[in-house]
Structure prediction request, 1508 residues.
Amino acid sequence: MAESVPTMDNSEEEFYDVPDSFLELHRGEGEKTPPASQTDYAPSPGQVAALNAESKASQSVTEPNPPVQFAVYQVSSESLSLRWDTPAGEVESYIVTCCHEGDVVQESTDTNTLTLSHLKPGVCYSLLVSTQLRNGRISKPAATSAKTKTHLESLLEDLGLEDRLKEKLSLSTILQIDKKTITDEPPKCNADLPWYFLKKLMMVNVTARNVKLNSTNSCDRLNPLDIITALFLCSDGFVRQELSLKMSMCQFSVPLLLPNCDTKQCTLMLWAMRDIVKKYRPQSLTESKGFIEERIVLSELPMISFVRLGECSLSKSEILNKLLSNDTFVHHDMECGDSPRRISNGLVEISWYLPCGNKNMDVFSEPVAVANLRGDIASFQTQFSFLCQTSAAVFVFFDTLDSECELLTNQQHKTQIFLVGNHQSNRFSMDALQNVAAELGLTNNNILLKTKQMNDADFVKTLGETVSNVVENSKMKMRIEQMADIAHKLGILVDEESSECQTAKKNADAITTEIQDILQYKEAELPLQGQIWKELTRLEKEEFRLRNVGSKNIEDYKSDLLLEKTQLRKEQNSHDISNAMTCFINAISSPEIERCYFLKWMRMNLDNVSREKLSDLRERYKEKCKNPENKEEIKDIDRQLSNSSLGIEHFFREMGQIYEASLSLPETEPSREQLQHLPKLCAQLLLDGLPLELVDGEASNIPLRWISDVLSQLNDLMSPLNKILVVTVLGVQSTGKSTLLNTMFGVQFAVSSGRCTRGAFMLLIRINEDIKKELNCDFMMIIDTEGLKSPELAQLDNSHEHDNELATLVVGLSDVTIINIAMENSTEMKDILQIVVHAFLRMKEVGKKPKCQFVHQNVSDVSAHEKNLRDRKLLMQQLNEMTQAAAKMEKKEENKNFSDVMEYSPDTGNCYIPGLWNGSPPMAPVNAGYSEAVYELKKNIIHVLGSCESSANDILEFTEWMKSLWNAVKHENFIFSFRNSLVADAYMKLCTEFNKWEWEFRQLMYTWVTDAETRIRNFGTVAGKSEISDMSECVKQLKSEASTILSEWETKLLENLAQGHVYLVEEYKEGFANGAKSLRRQMQSSVFNQLTAAADIRNGMTELEKIKENHTKELEGRVRALIEECQKKNIQMTEKELDEEFDKMWTETQKELSFEEMKFDDIYNSCQKKAEEFTRCCLKPAVEDFVYRSLGPDIIGEMLTNEQFSTRMSFQYSVLLDLLRKDDFENYRSYICSYEEYVKNWILDKIVKRFSEASTIFEFEDRHVQSSIRIINAAVNKAKTEKSANLESFVKNVCQELGDKLVISQDALGAFMILNNADQEQFAHWLTECVKDMAQVLQEEFNETDILMKLIQLNVHPQKELFTKLIGCGKQCPFCSAPCEAGGQEHSEHFASLHRSIALGQYRCSLSQILSTDICSSLVITPNSTFRCGATNWERHHHKDYKAIFPDWKISPDGSLEASDYWKYVLAKFNNKFAKAFKAEPADIPVTWNMITPQQAEESLKESFNIK
Prediction:
């Protein structure tokens, strides 16, 4: 019972109080007394404490010390591991005593650890340990207690599932994508086994039960049945359903009665099996080729049960597998099947044998359920009684019947009992068998013995014949659903008895029991999605495509369509919400668990209702499709299929229509407000893992507002974890696309034969934290789509268009597209590939680059490499042909090969998958090769997603893509353009960034040029610093410096362009790159011209300055001579005399030199006056010049911080919004007729307004003034430190320091220098003071000058620069005169976000002179509309072919029907005034135009320019 074990780490255990009876085992004064095995004496806890205290008090004298730190550190179901610390003294050994309810066991050990083995599970044991010294004395005991784990607790701990018994496993947990999903590492420990099993089972892999570890230790091996039982016990009802369904697909047996060995209770797994649907053909339907398809729990079948009585040498499960010709039941010869069962005894498993209608293949001609009880019936009498009352026959396997016959004879049942024995067993007794047979009244037919003459095959054949006879003749048939009543009587729990499940069932039944005729039911209870919704769809598409406009005015026609739509919405709103929909909405508003049960009940009930009719129709459809000549018949069956189909998606579709119809009501309408919660309800269901219909396959439309609002609510629920990657599947119908997705991701897209995917459904799978960084997303969205039809079938219902729309949409939405193809049908494959290639080509045009995986299903021999290689070459050839054809149709003929359209490798982009079934259904399990191939595909897809160039979109970005794509596909020619709002958003961001970079570049060059001009203007003067004496060399050096800066910035701009979401605007990227290069060339030319001009001016000034210098010297000489002459006169001259002498000398000199008059007083001045003069005449003009040279870029920079000046599109939006708010006709006329002049004035007005009211301009001026003062003071201080010979050299030093920033007038400086002998130190002092005063004077002058005067004086004129920047190329639409908004300087195509009625381009009817209301963005998609103008030589030309005349314009259809409401409103309001101004007759305004409000006009403006 005990063994010494090494010390292990502490573990958390559950401890209990020690029974005081233990202390009796250690009575006496320390004498060595053997403890009694039992005692009735039980001291109180207080006495125990007193004895322990006494022991401690006396230990120093007589008592040995007991062990200390006594603890239990490891607990299992059958053992307790103890340890303690060694006490003081010479210890010889320890005595350990274990007791439970009077049973006492004592062990001795000389180590300080001990493991007590062979204990009972789930029992509390009291434990004592005493020290025994070498002298024989025994200490008082140390005491504790511990409870062994139950078998279930122990196993769950081994499996790492101990917490899941209370907090059950959910589908979202087991389906999430994590590292384990995509790694092939085998399980390393027992805790890996459940997840390994689940991973395999969710992919329907028949090897899932192979759960053997690599360990050689047999103790580590767990029986697969224990793992299955543990998972069922630890899973919620929805996981149990999924486990049962997948196990059934693998032809594994599934739990019928699930035991809990702790509670001794078992549970009938009715709910768990409800989702299993089986399809079979009994012998009775062989001739008619009919079949039966139904839920297995509702099938009335005979059940044959197999049980064991006592030990048995025959393997019951192995014999059953041979009988059923499948590895249905785990047995001892299977992997780990011989491991002892720890918790699965008492498990009753069930499987089914279902015939295929072929006598040569069927084991049994009729369907039969087979039940198998694990363990001895003597231990599980409740389960045995249940089987006896529910089975047609019970086969009891035995070796001996000596003492157990009462168990058989006491059963109250009507079932037949068959005894199955092994005659070769040593324990077999024929007498006992005969006694029991007589007691039970059994004949020889009820006794089967395996004799020596029988091998296994013979015995199985005999057993099979017996079972077959029972099945064919038994009237005892029962549905599993009926077994619940028997379970209740026997005290067996039923798994669907929870209040949530029962309430949900009641709610679902209340809806579905009303269904008699499906078509009538849909018309009565789901009226909004019928003909009204289909008609709305037709009108929506016609609004975009204008196929039937004929000779009508386009805008009148569109207005009529809008009125029809409005009327249909009114008709929808006239319907009250039906009882069914009221119940449905109330039910999905219930708490989460109940809601999930309700939806599952609804799905199952609806499938049951429609299956009977749909299954037959689907089979007939498949059969007829093999011979497409029966076109009308096929079309009729297809219509019946649509009418007879009723699934949960129809209720959500109705919910969407109820919601969309309510949006046409006023916002304050109560009925509208009451429905605002519906999108959030649906969003929560998506988050719970429910598939949601994205595309309504019957109407071939997306309810955009409904889906957008659901996704918006989903974004709110998920934020900030809202990044998604999208995987979609495309392919021919009925090729197993849904099954492929279900197998790959373990999800639940509808796949029963009565349900064929229509449209497209989306579903979310959570990404686990351990792989989020690799995938850079939080969820994966899976989109399952309707099959694309073959060419023959497509002709029946014109579904080519529908297939094109669907393919384009899902390819556009996806990051990876799985394309299901069949190489054997080359014609069909070509047609499908053409659709797919068109979709990929369109995506390339908008910068979306999805990856694709071609999947070849039903490839029988995946090892046939040569054949696959040939197939890949053929596929590549087909793809290239399709690409060339598609490129020609799309007018993108530069795409020659499929690899030009997208990244694709024939070697890695193909996956070969064998057939789904390993044999002939219904008894065939899923092919292991299918599961493994799908698993490899899954790993490859996740790897591709992880390596995607583009980062994951968040939900809102996905929504924008979806809306834009769907609006785009509504145009029959699938024109992809700027209407994609995400592309527009990315383009806007790129424009904004490019403009910012461009302005930084320009600003840098403005500053550099200003400094360079200053250096040139100061060249050769006292302020010049250059060591170069030749001006041409100076200019050359400056040009070289400019070229270097320009090159660096050009490189930086191009690098910036390569970053961010530029892939979205790939087609515009080259234009921006060319713009960057053009900007560099433009700036270089401008800079060089300015440098050359400055140099030319400086050279001219140099000549002038030489003349002035000579004149100044002559003047100075004569003034000095005059002074000396006056000084020689020994009399004091009066002021008048001095003036007279000076005037005389000045007049003579002026005649010679032509110099301006100078006041003689100026010669005699103080230092203060000279400082004031220098400041006033030299420094102040220089500083003022510096401020005005710097102010222009400052104003531009400030204006560019305003959103309306950030890009051309923002600018256009702002101008148009301003026009709308002013609501003045003259403004509109000026804008339309004199666009450039209006825009220039608008910009000037904004500048004046911005800088008249704000202090910003004064801040700029003050900053430059203060900057100048700082450098002046610094120059003065530096000059003071240098030794100057006189004031002239001092001033020269100051000017030289200022030469980099300020240009000082050489005339003023020369005049100041004349006869200047002021004291340097005094001059410097007063100069500093004067500079302070100068700052104040300048500020006052600036404050007094209005902004318009300042703008005139600036070197760089902001209004001109902003106009040049924002007007762009200045081109206008050739039809409506809308200005081009393309970014960059060198764009190859012109476009405008918002086109307008061509009436505003002065187009009119040539006969009536009535202004045309047509809008060019509609005209370009209208089949028959024409125009003529000077460019066509006044000959008629189709609008749709406008590119032939105006190749550099891109006129896209409006992104939405409301996009052009702005200009519709303007023309409707000012129709007469425009007619008068254009000398034409007023336009015939469509009715709906007059209904547009200013608010709607503003909204349309925002939509057109993608303003959030």
About this structure: DSSP finds 51 helices and 29 strands in the chain. Residues 165 and 1401 are 75 Å apart (CA to CA). The two ends are 77 Å apart (CA to CA).
